[in-house]
Amino acid sequence: MLLWNTGLYCYLLYRNVNPPLFMETPYRQLNWLYLVWVNLWQLLDPNFLCPDWRFGTVPLIESTLDPRNLVTMATFVCLAYLAWRGLAYSKKLLFGLTWMALTFLPASNVFFPVGFVVAERVLYLPSLGYCFIVGYGFTIAFKTLRSAFVRFLTASTFIVLICLMASRTVLRNEDWISNVSLYSSGARCNPNNGVMLTNLGIQHGRLKNFTFAEKLYRRSMKVAPKHSRGYSNFGGLMEARKRYGEAEEVRQGFIQDFFFLGGGGGAHVVCLTTPTFPETTPI
Distance between CA 124 and CA 117 in Å, rounded? Predict the structure, then answer.
């Protein structure tokens, strides 16, 4: 019974945190390959960062005609070209690419399924290879260019790039000052992320901003109907505001449509179906 419960919990957990795992071939592979581009884009343009990417934050590719497949193809064509250049002309370029590939492979679903769709933490080691390639590329460009003016532009571009990335780091550090700022940045980046909306609602509830917290919970239940915490916290908020009828209604649906599995330090609550709840109004 314990093994059955553990297996069911893992199945339901992965269903929400790594949905491509449960898709048919070739759509499973198309989604996982597309995620390589998503991670590369976070290195190229770190303006869309979020501490959680679950519950459909990255829409699934469900058709071979999805235009995102072209993005995936272009990504691997570029990577293959860089690898060929590295093999033919530059061991340093090859080293940077190899470092990026080897340190990212454990999080790529190639060897085993992982418990997330996108996770910025897995880019710490690959980013070393990325920085090495960028620095090496600018060095080669600076050395091979003959025009003093073009070399000046190249050096200026590199300095501006460093300043932009440094300023982005400072701004991102501001997001991590408090839970409210962190979840607010996540909700701005992914407005349809139910986890971010629920967590932000919890923080505003603790600050007694009940009206705004209610809007966040309602939005969370609308965009992520299988995220359990949105319902449970919405019911708790209704009780705190003495709106017992709404609390009872949402929790009745919560009890009927959620499955409780014991384990670890407490009960894990996983949504099996879409719960019933009062009519919601989007933010």
Answer: 16
Question: Could you say which architecture CATH assigns to the domain 181-271?
Answer: Alpha Horseshoe (1.25)
pLDDT tens digits, residue range 70-87?
Answer: 999 999 999 999 999 999
What are residue 26's phi and psi, to 5 degrees? -95, 5
CA distance 140 to 13: 47
In sequence order, which residues have a C-beta less than 8 Å from that of residue 232 and are 6 or more positions away? 251, 254, 269
pTM of the complete model: 0.79
Q: Is the four-CA dihedral 95, 45, 57, 229 of positive or negative sign? A: positive
For the chain, how many residues are written? Answer: 283
Give the separation between CA 82 and CA 75, rounded to whole angstroms: 11
Return the residue matching tokens 């893992």: 10
CA gyration radius, the chain:
23
Kindly state the tokens that stand for 108.
């790529």
* Domain boundary assignment for the chain: 2-144, 181-271
Element (H, E) at 266: strand 266-271
37: how many CB neighbours lie within 10 A of its CB? Answer: 19
Q: Which amino acid is at 238?
A: M
